[in-house]
Inverse folding.
């Protein structure tokens, strides 16, 4: 009887908690995005670039200039412009890009998967290589492995990514011919599949176009390894310092007293504790790759979000910049939520 | 009981080679231990904990352990392979540490940690290990073993945590238990309870016990024999009941510092150290 009521109230409690969390998430997302739109919008209006000239050119007669200005709504007070933009944005209309003339939404749906593909693979490589390297460096502190990881991290921090990208292209594409060059896919394969998710690797694989798939793999390997390297430089350093901290804890000695093998002591006891702060580090590094692989995308002619935003900025295409910024902002909030959830999963003290 | 001693330690030295020079934390400790209770007392830094760690082969790097003799049940601990040492650790020699808040892994349930200790030394299935862990939790007088089994260390009190620690370290039925200040992090009433449980289990299983503490009174009431350590050396070894007949000025000094109920001594004498003791 009491047991039954207990579970019932427990279930009720969990439901309420879940609802509360969802509401909280929506509130955070809404506030973040609103702030982001406001800042980007007003900066976009204040900067001394004239979107009208960007459209009509600097030799257009004054009446044409005035008409376009009115069409764009730029003659209205700024607050009113903002209000109009917000109303449209809520219904999913972010305006048209001046550069591509497409709706910004359509453009982003086209470019975002390319960046997502690159950043996700880069982060996976960063974790798969960076975490074990960091653990090894911490366990064998001061050894050759530790020095190697230190140098690897230092190079990762300090060498410009565009230089490393160019060198990689020069060596593996131009000289050795091991991989395909810039771009996502050779033109020959471009029409062999229909884009569904927009992620070429998944689309080609799902549709059984193995030739196209391997071509895409060959294209993505260099840029993804490059991003993976930068991500692993960071992740391995952080893993090392978190692990050093955990290895000095008493429970590690207790685990050794129990007669556990060193492998279990390190990977099961210490790393499981180090994984908690590591989640945040990985999420941040992932978000960073999502927003900021502009240079990599430029060098590898990768039609991604970074390149799109940069091009738009250079052409005073503020609608596109705003749309792109919002996507990145949303990605940040979602990654934050995910790392929050993972945190709860990994650390019972935060439940 | 047995004539052959469980543990023989002769001229044990623990050295740390640091950048600033070599520090000798333990400087020639010798003793033998049967299935009895040996207390090691001394102030912080006297080398008592490092003695315990050296027996377990867990001297932290860059430490070095040297001894004329360091054997457990005839096994030379200095030359034994890592594998042998690992089967001894947790299997036949165990250690209860000071503060359960730090010595239990915060992200594993208590049950999981006990099971792990058991399975490291027996070929047993999950169900058997679980039963054993629950029985052990009951043996340390947990009121609701099944519930404690699935709790995380931060969800239990200090006293319960220390009982869980004892359960974890005794689940494999070791022959020797090293208790390194097992009650220092607990308040007085709880620590009496822990000592009672420890006392019962050690007696029941006929284990040897090394009880490390800075509390002379506690050690003398709990153990058969007491080693008094000072600056890495044993300055005095005596039967616990003969504590009053201590000859070394350090032990005598320690005894004098204790307040008594009968006569009110004001101010309480403090210990004045003689550099010659450390020689």
């Amino acid at each position: 009887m009491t047991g039954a009521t207990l579970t019932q109230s427990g279930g009720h409690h969990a439901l309420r908690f879940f609802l509360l969390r969802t509401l909280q998430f929506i509130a955070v997302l809404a506030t973040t995005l609103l702030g982001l739109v406001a800042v980007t919008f007003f900066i976009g209006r204040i900067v001394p670039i004239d979107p009208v000239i960007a459209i009509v050119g600097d030799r257009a007669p004054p009446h044409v200039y005035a008409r376009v200005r009115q069409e764009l709504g730029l003659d209205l007070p700024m607050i009113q412009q903002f209000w109009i933009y917000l109303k449209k944005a809520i219904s999913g209309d972010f305006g048209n890009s001046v550069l591509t003339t497409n709706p910004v939404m359509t453009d982003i749906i086209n470019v975002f998967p390319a960046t997502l593909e690159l950043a996700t693979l880069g982060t996976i490589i960063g974790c798969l290589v960076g975490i074990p390297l960091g653990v090894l460096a911490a366990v064998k502190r001061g050894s050759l492995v530790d020095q190697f990881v230190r140098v690897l991290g230092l190079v990762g921090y300090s060498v410009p990514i565009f230089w490393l990208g160019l060198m990689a292209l020069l060596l593996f594409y131009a000289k050795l011919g091991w991989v395909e060059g810039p771009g996502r896919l050779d033109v020959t394969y471009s029409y062999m599949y229909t884009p569904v998710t927009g992620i070429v690797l998944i689309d080609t694989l799902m549709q059984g176009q193995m030739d196209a798939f391997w071509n895409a793999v060959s294209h993505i390997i260099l840029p993804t390894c490059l991003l993976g390297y930068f991500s692993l430089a960071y992740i391995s350093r952080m893993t090392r310092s978190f692990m050093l901290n955990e290895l000095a804890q008493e429970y590690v000695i207790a685990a050794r007293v129990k007669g556990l093998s060193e492998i279990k002591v390190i990977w099961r006891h210490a790393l499981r504790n180090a994984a908690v702060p590591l989640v945040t580090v990985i999420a941040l590094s992932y978000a960073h790759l999502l927003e900021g692989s502009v240079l990599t995308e430029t060098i590898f002619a990768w039609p991604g979000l970074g390149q799109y935003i940069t091009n738009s900025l250079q052409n005073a295409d503020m609608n596109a910049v705003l749309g792109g910024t919002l996507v990145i902002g949303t990605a940040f909030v979602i990654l934050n939520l995910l790392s929050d959830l993972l945190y709860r999963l990994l650390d019972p003290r935060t439940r | 009981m047995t004539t052959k001693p469980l543990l023989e330690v002769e001229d044990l030295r623990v050295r740390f080679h640091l950048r600033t020079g070599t520090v000798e934390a333990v400087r020639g400790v010798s003793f033998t231990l049967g299935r009895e209770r040996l207390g090691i007392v001394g102030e912080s830094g006297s080398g008592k904990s490092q003695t315990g760690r050296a027996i377990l082969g867990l001297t932290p790097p860059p430490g070095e352990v040297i001894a004329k003799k360091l054997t457990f049940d005839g096994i030379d601990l200095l030359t034994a392979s890592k594998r042998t040492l690992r089967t001894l650790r947790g299997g036949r020699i165990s250690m209860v540490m000071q503060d359960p808040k730090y010595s239990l892994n915060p992200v594993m349930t208590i049950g999981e940690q006990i099971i792990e200790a058991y399975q490291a030394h027996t070929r047993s299935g999950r169900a058997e290990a679980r039963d054993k862990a629950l029985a052990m939790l009951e043996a340390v007088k947990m009121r609701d073993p099944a519930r404690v089994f699935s709790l995380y260390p931060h969800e239990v009190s200090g006293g319960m945590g220390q009982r869980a620690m004892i359960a974890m370290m005794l689940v494999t039925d070791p022959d020797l238990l090293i208790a390194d200040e097992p009650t220092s992090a607990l308040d007085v009433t709880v620590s009496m309870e822990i000592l009672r449980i420890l006392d019962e289990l050690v007696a029941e299983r006929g284990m040897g016990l090394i009880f490390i503490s800075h509390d002379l009174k506690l050690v003398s009431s709990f153990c058969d024999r007491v080693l008094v350590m000072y600056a890495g050396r044993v300055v005095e070894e005596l039967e616990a009941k003969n504590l009053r007949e201590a000859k070394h000025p350090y032990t005598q000094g320690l005894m004098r510092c204790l307040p008594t109920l009968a006569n009110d001594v004001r101010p309480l004498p403090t210990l004045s150290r003689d550099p010659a003791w450390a020689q």
